[in-house]
UniProtKB/TrEMBL annotation, chain A:
It comes from Maribacter orientalis. GO terms for biological process: fatty acid biosynthetic process. SUPFAM superfamilies: Thiolase-like. PANTHER family: 3-OXOACYL-[ACYL-CARRIER-PROTEIN] SYNTHASE 1, POLYKETIDE SYNTHASE-RELATED. This is 3-oxoacyl-[acyl-carrier-protein] synthase 1. Keywords: Acyltransferase, Cytoplasm, Transferase.
TrEMBL record, chain B:
It holds the Pfam family PP-binding. The lineage of its organism: Bacteria, Pseudomonadati, Bacteroidota, Flavobacteriia, Flavobacteriales. Residues 4-81 form the Carrier domain. This is Acyl carrier protein. InterPro entries: ACP-like_sf, PP-bd_ACP.
Length: 424, 84
């Protein structure tokens, strides 16, 4: 059994826009969400800038009851609930007000680590010998599946409700997992997405690895430079993206708006063998992942007209372009348009795949390829692989047909999903 | 502290934990937190912490076990305040 799967709802809580309207506008303009973070400066971080969604306090009241807000100290849950509930509404779906769980609706919402600030609170109390003062919300805000649990309860879903975690591939992996489950007939509707907490306790480890830019603390919007010769590391970010995946049958029955179709995808790992390691990708696996995603989608590599890469703004960007080029067997002017949203959003870690997928899908709606920022100086090795015309520096009018979106992550894990403009 | 003042302070704490189908006017001296007010056991843990903060007292495990009704809570708060 293999059924067609479509996207009927989107939601986002991103550093450069909370909600689809603001986010779309920011992408059209290339508006940066990367800002100076006083807390990082105070704590003596090398990189004192980050991409953090600006969530107004009164907005949170629309999503959480006063009781839920008490002691709520998990930014990932706030972002995930905002994006998730928005996507659900955007799909024209309602909260389940009946007494019966919605058996054919599920949640597959990932994260890397959840509720770190809440966990810090707990650690202090426990170390003071005061474990009794933790209260009842310590567990639900710090368990990884806290986010799917919150959303599952809010929406009354009765199908699989779970959290996946695969570093920076998490969001893209979730879309493919949701696609698989729906196409196999095990669910009709799945809210998928991912979220990542803000703050020094999430970002500190990357600063310590010395992989974040340190020269842009006074110039945050220029810091993240995917595909550029002056790329010097990724800027950490946070937030959440959410997508409602649905069987075509169900979407048609409901008369839902369809953003795009998910044709399929592939998830794999390089086994940390060959050139692969905990932190570096095995190119053989990356190429295989891209190739298989094309195969699984029943299309030809030549049909892909837009790519949204992982492209974090490190020296590895060149290798990624090379891997796409080899996997698709396309180069020079024959290469698809390619963009990276990390130039304006930063690298939202576990939330990256879902936020960027929301952005990717919006290109179908807006009939554009969103611009790349901070890469006027395209890396010469990239220019030797693909034509610079493939890397739009301005948002360009284009009606995308098939977009490939990939994410790669620590642990040598890869995910590539294929989206297609919807037609009956 | 007057009994009335104590009772109102306690009611203010309980208010936020009431489920949608229970209102603050349903709270009476002999209300059972879980059976009458439908407050779940996890939230009872939080009510205890709020009581500690509001009255600047400390409740032990035994006190928590005994705190089943609004009256129980009032009595425990009284005892703790007197022994301060």
């Amino acid at each position: 059994m293999s059924r067609r799967v479509v996207i009927t709802g989107l939601g986002v809580c991103a550093p450069n826009g909370v909600g689809l309207t603001d986010f779309t506008q920011s992408l059209l303009e290339g508006k940066s969400g990367i800002r100076h973070q006083p807390i990082l400066e105070k704590l003596g971080f090398g990189c004192q800038i980050a991409g953090e969604p600006l969530v107004k306090d009164n907005l949170i009241d629309n999503y959480f009851t006063p009781l839920e807000r008490r002691g709520l100290n998990a930014t990932g849950i706030v972002y995930g609930v905002i994006a998730g509930v928005d996507a659900w509404k955007d799909a024209g779906l309602e909260k389940n007000e009946t007494e019966e769980p919605s058996w054919d609706r599920g949640i597959l919402f990932g994260t890397g680590i959840l509720g770190v600030d809440k966990f810090r609170e707990a650690i202090h109390l426990i170390d003071e010998g005061n474990v009794r003062r933790l209260g009842s919300t310590s567990v639900i805000q710090t368990m990884a599946s806290g986010i799917s649990a919150y959303l599952g309860g809010l929406l009354g879903c009765g199908n699989q409700v779970t959290t996946n975690s695969a570093a920076c591939t998490t969001g893209t992996e979730g879309i493919i997992m949701a696609y698989d489950r729906i196409s196999q007939g095990k669910a009709e509707i799945i809210l998928t997405g991912s979220c990542s907490d803000s703050g020094p306790y999430v970002w500190g480890g990357f600063d310590a690895m010395r992989i974040l830019p340190r020269a842009y603390n006074d110039n945050p919007s220029q810091a993240s430079r995917p595909m550029s010769a002056s790329a010097c590391g990724f800027i950490p970010g946070s937030g959440a993206g959410a997508l409602v995946l649905e069987s075509l049958e169900s979407a048609q029955k409901r008369g839902a708006h369809i953003y795009a179709e998910v044709l399929g995808g592939e998830i794999n790992s390089g086994g940390q063998l060959g050139e692969g390691s905990m932190t570096a990708p095995n190119s053989i696996a990356v190429q295989r992942c891209i190739r298989n995603s094309i195969l699984n989608s029943g299309i030809e590599a030549s049909e892909v007209d837009v790519i949204n890469g992982h492209l974090t703004a490190t020296a590895k960007d060149v290798l990624e372009i090379e891997n796409w080029s080899i996997a698709l067997n396309r180069s020079g002017k024959d290469f698809p348009y390619i963009n990276s949203f990390k130039g304006s959003i930063g690298h939202c870690l576990a939330a990256a795949g879902s936020i960027e997928s929301v952005a990717t899908i919006l290109q179908f709606q807006e009939k554009v390829v969103f611009k790349n920022v901070n890469c006027a100086d395209i890396h010469t090795q990239i220019q030797s692989l693909i034509s610079e015309n493939c890397i739009p520096l301005k948002t360009m009018n284009h009606i995308p047909k098939i977009i490939a979106k990939a994410s790669f992550g620590f642990g040598d894990v890869n995910a590539c999903v294929i989206f297609k403009a919807y037609s009956e | 502290m007057l009994e009335e003042e104590k009772y109102n302070k306690l009611k203010d704490i309980i208010k936020i934990y009431l489920p949608e189908d229970v209102t603050v006017t349903d709270v009476e001296q002999n209300s059972h937190f879980m059976n009458d007010l439908n407050i779940n056991s996890a939230n009872l843990v939080d009510i205890v912490l709020d009581v500690e903060d509001a009255f600047d007292i400390r409740l032990e495990n035994d006190d928590m076990d005994q705190m089943q009704t609004v009256n129980d809570a009032m009595a425990i708060i009284d005892t703790k305040l007197k022994s301060k």
